[in-house]
Amino acid sequence: MKKLTIFDRVLTLTLATTILTSCGLKETKAETMEIAPEVIYEQFREITEEKEIEANEELDQIEIIDKAINLCEEEDEEQEYNPIVRATSNVNIRVSSNLESDTLGVLSEGCKLYKIGEVDGFYMVYYNGNIAYVSKDFVREETEPIYKSDITKLVYINNDTPIFNEQGETLGTLPQYEVCEVYGEEGNTYKVKTIDFSGNVLKSDCIDLPTEVIVVDLSEQVLNYYKDNTNVRTVSVITGKKGHETSVGVFPIYAMQRNQTLRGENYASYVSFKIAFDGERKIYIHDSDYHVDPNGFKHGWRPLDDFDKTAEEKHQIGSHGCVNTKYEDAEYLYENTSVGVPVIVKH
User: Fold this and answer.
1) Which of 51, 151, 209, 338 is 20–30 Å from 230 (CA)?
2) Which ranges constitute the DSSP H helices of the chain?
3) Per-residue pLDDT at 266
4) How many CB atoms are located within 10 Å of the residue 276 CB?
């Protein structure tokens, strides 16, 4: 029997409440679910069929609804989480659990790191490939869900390389830095999917990526954020215009900051979230849509509908090289990614 997704959980419980209300039934687990009835009976039957939950023409409401809810409860029990710490204010990241020890960097307010353990008033954390320490006084503990995926790993193409089918026939050419989702392997090849192709590539043409990576597609003007080998968010972006093109390549995030003024030739822009990845050119992922924050400060400059334009139109109104996003997307990335995560910029 298939598991229900979180979306299906909410929908199923809503449907269950609707049916119970209309039938006047009380003796079921669904009775305690405080969800307003908003959908109709026929939709519930579609869900039960799609999820292979047995449903007769007469439909025993109590039995079927409880079965659906039990599946949801099983899913909750099986969900795994990673422990993290999130900064409540800017805090130094140190090489040991001592306030006098050397610093490796600063964890900006709102940013997170993965927690490894605790010692002497400090949290032991994973920072940019190293074990480090942050004071408990300036962070709080949280958890985040671990995503489950059919993708076994992520890789990127080292040099332009062919992708071919099972018969060895070439399907096309993958450009350097193209990111591939790997679904299997056989001998010296990976079975992969990209935005344009599904086929096989030689392992020798691929470089492994960690399970968390940000991929900026200059041609499509989108950003894909992978977590646990799962594409968890796709973001509309605006990248560098002609003469100021965003550099292609692989760049680790080296700094994350809030409420910064970005300055260049003939401009100064105040942004809410800055994720720095190309240190040589000072290129960042940041919000750029115009908005006023709760304190009355004006941020950004772009109208929101800029992000609804086609890729070709976006190239005409591009940035000075930075990866522009909406406020809500920059906030999401800021709160979920961390220093050391690679950013791949590709065509």
Assistant:
1) 51
2) 6-23, 41-50, 61-78, 311-316, 327-336
3) 75
4) 20
> What are 91-98's contacts with CB under 8 Å, separation 24+?
91/134, 91/135, 91/138, 91/139, 92/134, 92/135, 93/125, 93/127, 93/132, 93/133, 93/134, 94/122, 94/132, 94/133, 94/134, 95/132, 95/133, 96/133, 97/121, 97/122, 97/124, 97/133
Burial of 297 (0-12, 13-18, 19+ CB in 10 A): exposed
Q: Chain centroid to CA 313: how far?
A: 26
Note the pLDDT tens digit of each residue in 220-273: 999 999 999 999 999 999 999 999 999 999 999 999 999 898 887 777 888 999
Is the fold of 153-209 the same as that of 213-346? no
Query: Which residues, including other chains, have CB under 8 Å from residue 7's CB and lie 6 or more apart?
Result: none
- In 175-254, where do the E strands start and end? 179-186, 189-193, 198-202, 206-209, 213-217, 222-227, 230-236, 249-252
- pLDDT given at position 55: 46
pLDDT of residue 169: 96
- Whole-number pLDDT of residue 98: 94
Cβ 75 vs Cβ 9: under 8 Å: yes
pTM equals 0.76
pLDDT given at position 156: 98
Q: Which residues of the chain have pLDDT under 70?
A: 1-77
Q: Is 162 exposed, middle or buried (0-12, 13-18, 19+ CB in 10 A)?
A: middle
The position carrying tokens 């039938």 is 23
pLDDT of residue 23: 45
Q: Alpha-carbon distance 161 to 193, whole Å?
A: 14
Strands (E), 128-169: 130-135, 139-145, 153-157, 161-164
What CATH topology corresponds to 153-209? SH3 type barrels. (2.30.30)
| CATH architecture of structural domain 81-145 | Roll (2.30)
What pLDDT does residue 299 have? 82
Residue 25 has a pLDDT of 42
Name the architecture of domain 213-346: Beta Barrel (2.40)
- For the chain, what's the residue count? 347
